[in-house]
Amino acid sequence: MQCEICGSDIKGNPIRVTVEGTDLDVCGKCARYGKPSDKWSPVSRKIVPTERAIVTHKPRRDVFDKLQDEIIPDYAGVIKKARESQGLTIEELASKMMEKATLIRKIEREELIPEDAIRKKLETALNIKLTERFSSQDQRGGGFIRGTTLGDVAVIRKKGK
Question: Which residue, 38, 57, 112, 122, could crosslink 106 as a Cys pair with Cβ 3.0–4.6 Å?
Answer without folding.
Answer: 112
